[in-house]
Amino acid sequence: MSVAFIEGGFMSKGKKWVALVLAVALVLAVALTGCASKTDTGTSDTTGNTTKTVTLKTIEPGKLLVGSDTAFPPFESMNGNVAEGFDVDLMKAIGEKLGLEVTFKTEIFDTLIPTLKAGGKFDVIASGMTIKPDRQLEIDFSDPYYDSNQSLVMKKGTTYTGPEQLSGKKVGVQSGTTGEAWAKENVTGATLVPFKNATDAFAALQAGNVDAVVNDLPVSTELLKDDDRGLAIVAQIPTGEQYGFGVSKDNPDLTAAINKALAEIKSDGTYNDIYQKWFGILPE
Ligand code: ARG
Fold first, then answer.
1. Fewest C-beta atoms under 10 Å: which of 87, 133, 195, 223?
2. Which domains does the chain have, with CATH numbers?
3. HSE (side-chain half, CA atoms, 13 Å) at 53
4. CA of 129 to the centre of ligand 1 (A)
């Protein structure tokens, strides 16, 4: 950096001296600020990119505790006492990028947001949760990681003609879900029967305790792969939902770190591998 002095006859010798001192001070200040911001924004990684070093605030140091209703395959389900699924693998891949060990904790879907807000139990929600405005008032969401729609499931062989067909019928939904919200808005004259999870709703449909179930399409598709249930998807409902990971509004650094890691696993192929593993195809 160079500082040019404009020689003019209007400055006295004393004033020139003051100007010189000020100019030197300015140069030093700029140089120091430059240095300081460099250390603040972090170190360079091996590829030469500057990465921001922030210490992530999690409940247990070095760990990322994840709240999830683990009865929602292929996103999350229990294999013995181990959680598995698309969300589980994504969170693990994200945890790896962040240097945090991921542990899933099973919670009723309905209680995930209040529990996250209350704090102390888990750091993130990964539960096939749709990003929607009323939820965004309560918690923050990561960038979307999966596009979804709703489905209507009934006994195999049923011809479905439209929501009016459900009038006077019992419609099973999972409490607190977008499927429940869709049914409340679009199905008139039916009795909505809330269940704590999707698998219970399907069991009730099989047993004849409800006449239909509204549930996220990819999960209905997965649960109905087992043909013995005698159930079928009679309608796809294009709600155009997107799933995101939920984080407390008090932890914006964690949301930013998750977004960065998500972008990385999308560009390095990890996301596609995980997608193919759970859906058998590559994302569109
Ligand atoms: N996507 C729907 C919602 O956000 C249903 C999610 C249910 N997830 C679960 N793991 N049970 O309301």
1. 133
2. 62-145+244-279 (3.40.190.10), 148-241 (3.40.190.10)
3. 8
4. 5
